[in-house]
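Reposting from the mailing list since nobody answered there.

I have sequence plus structure tokens for a pair of proteins and want to know whether others read the tokens the same way I do. The first protein:
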Amino acid sequence: MIEAIWPSFATWQKDALPVSADINAQGLLSFWLYWLVSIPFLFIKMPTLRWMFLLKMCIMPFLGVSLFTWAAITTAISASSSQSRFQIRSTFISNPDP
């Protein structure tokens, strides 16, 4: 995911650690960044989390329906534009013609 933001991360310190370490510099940095970002959330008190999850419970159905609608519309558009040059053939579907 870091490579999507900074493409140069894929080649950053490529051979900085020996092969016997069984980890590369990118993996090590990603591990530490994950922990630095996630540790502060451990100190949030439960009553505060309760309100956050209540808000999430109210928002997620709308976001789920909108994501499903977007996926259905995008699939229909891409299927109609490539319908003439793309055909699905399957050996699992029986052919009604003898």
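The second protein, same order (residues first, tokens after):
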Amino acid sequence: MAERSKSPNRFTVILEQEEMGFSGYCPALPGCVSQGDDRESALENIVEAIELVLDVNSEPLHTVVSAASLANEIQEIMDGRKEDGLPLTGISIVEVGHGGQVCR
């Protein structure tokens, strides 16, 4: 679903705790974001958003996010949280597979 990592059916998402709920980002699909009242609903919602993006794209996506790009994305989130006075905790990196299964 978002960042295609170890197999074509796996994507990395970033879950970020906000003041009211959680946000989810998919670095491999710019603009693919979602949110939820809690971590679980944010994960479900970002998985759904990823599936919708993949459904509307008629051509295969060839986006692979490098470790360096992912690290830069996380650093930007951390910098933004610091600027906003939010705690630097509350960020999760999750890899999801086909059907929204969390990969371990």
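Reply #1 (J.P.):
I read it the same way you do. Residues 39-56 form the longest helix (18 residues).
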